[in-house]
Automatic annotation (TrEMBL):
InterPro entries, per database record: Leu-rich_rpt, LRR_dom_sf, LRR_N_plant-typ, RLP29
Organism: Trifolium subterraneum
Highest taxon in the source lineage: Eukaryota
This protein's UniProt keywords: Cell wall, Disulfide bond, Leucine-rich repeat, Membrane, Plant defense, Repeat, Secreted, Signal
Taxonomic lineage of the native organism: Eukaryota, Viridiplantae, Streptophyta, Embryophyta, Tracheophyta
Any single Gene Ontology cellular-component annotation: membrane
Record membrane topology: Peripheral membrane protein
Entry-linked PANTHER family: LEUCINE-RICH REPEAT (LRR) FAMILY PROTEIN (PTHR48009:SF4)
Name the UniProt record assigns to this protein: Leucine-rich repeat-containing N-terminal plant-type domain-containing protein
Compartment list: Membrane; Secreted, Cell wall
Entry-linked Gene3D superfamilies: Ribonuclease Inhibitor
ATP-binding found in the keyword field: no
């Protein structure tokens, strides 16, 4: 009986006594603390008193005697975050799986020593002032699933090694100053989200350089070129696609309209040719404006809720199915201004529902109904006759 009571006491003792933090991790946290400071209004570091157990510090999460996750900065909405630099000692936290830095004013380079964190799965340092290049060594961290370095001031190229990470699910580098080409992600077969929006990337994407696992792709606000057909034909799991504000060329592949998309943004490129979906298009928002598209408008686009076809070279009449959907308030935005359209069958007394916007300005016809056009459509209602005659 005495033995079992003793065992019970021993068990309780071990459960209540947690292992003391590994000295290497302890010293690393001290270095990290010395190089970072609370922005006025933040009190994140108030609990970081090294006479106590660092596993009780704000943002420090331990497993056994090692730091497993580090969340630097206050996570409360509207908190001003931290300032300073990320110390190279971060690379000494050998068990670290999750490194998050809240939005704030952290500046300087990403330390190369992050490449030593072999267990790292999540790297999230967005909305700060991080500059310099993305460490190429991140491509050696084979457990990495998410890299979010968005809204910083990173420059240089995207290291090709990152495109080969086998476990990578999410790569979010939007709103930086990255240059060069988009590397191949062909071997990143688990990649769901690729967001490189608002950088200065150039060149064309190699055929088959994007994996068919992609569900979210944003490359907008870059200077990318090449034929869009080559890039997209295999990506049939996409539910969000934004290639706007680039210099992509060629026709829009018909099968793209059959992908499970909710949003298709191809505006402000140099896409040309007719738009000919195979089936009725069920995408909620389709923006093909400011391109060089031509031919008649397909009636199969009538089921789109927000349709932007303005500033192209479309000809012929507006399909009757568009009018029906618009009057039934099923179509919310139909922008057809600045084309070469010659007619629309609609009763002049028909009232467009308040929830819907129709713009027909600057075509080869007199708009028959009241319109709600954006201000940048200009004031000219009708295209000059000579332009209409030349176009036909």
């Amino acid at each position: 009986m005495k033995i079992s009571t003793f065992s019970l006491v021993l068990l309780c003792f071990f459960q209540s006594a947690r292992a003391i933090l590994d000295p290497v991790d302890f010293l690393a946290l001290q270095s990290i603390r010395r190089s970072l400071h609370d922005v006025p209004g933040s009190n994140f570091f108030s609990s970081w008193d090294f006479t106590g157990d660092p596993c009780n510090f704000a943002g420090v999460y331990c497993v056994a005697d090692k730091v497993f996750a580090l969340n630097l900065g206050e996570t409360r909405a509207g908190s001003p975050g931290l300032t300073g630099k990320i110390d190279t000692a971060i690379g000494k936290l050998s068990s670290l799986a999750d490194l998050t830095v809240s939005p704030g004013r952290i500046y300087g380079h990403l330390p190369q020593s992050i490449s030593q964190l072999k267990n790292l799965k999540f790297l999230g340092i967005s909305r700060n002032f991080i500059s310099g290049e993305i460490p190429a060594g991140l491509g050696q961290l084979h457990n990495l699933r998410t890299i979010d370095l968005s809204y910083n001031q990173l420059s240089g190229t995207i290291p090709p090694s990152i495109g080969k990470l086998p476990a990578l699910n999410n790569l979010i580098l939007r709103h930086n100053r990255l240059t060069g080409s988009v590397p191949s992600f062909a071997s990143a077969q688990n990649l769901n989200r690729l967001d490189l929006k608002h950088n200065s990337l150039t060149g064309s994407l190699a055929r088959d350089s994007l994996p068919s696992s992609l569900q979210y792709l944003s490359l907008s606000w870059n200077q990318l070129t090449g034929n869009v057909d080559r890039v997209l034909y295999r990506l049939n799991r996409l539910n969000y696609l934004d290639l706007s504000l680039n210099r992509f060329t060629g026709p829009i592949p018909a099968q793209l309209f059959s992908f499970p998309l909710t949003n298709l943004q191809l505006e402000r490129n140099q896409l040309c040719g007719p738009v000919e979906p195979f089936n009725e298009v069920t995408i909620q928002t389709v923006d093909l404006s400011y391109n060089k598209l031509s031919g008649e408008i397909s009636p199969l686009l009538a089921s789109v809720q927000n349709l932007y076809l303005n500033n192209n070279g479309f000809t012929g009449e507006v399909p009757g199915s568009f009018v029906e959907r618009l009057l039934a308030a099923n179509m919310q935005i139909l922008y057809l201004q600045h084309n070469y359209l010659t007619g629309i069958v609609i009763n002049p007394t028909a009232e467009i529902p308040l929830s819907s916007s129709l713009c027909l300005q600057y075509n080869c016809m007199v708009p028959p109904v009241q319109m709600t056009c954006p201000s940048k459509a200009g004031y000219q209602k009708i295209r000059p006759a000579r332009e209409c005659n030349q176009h036909h």
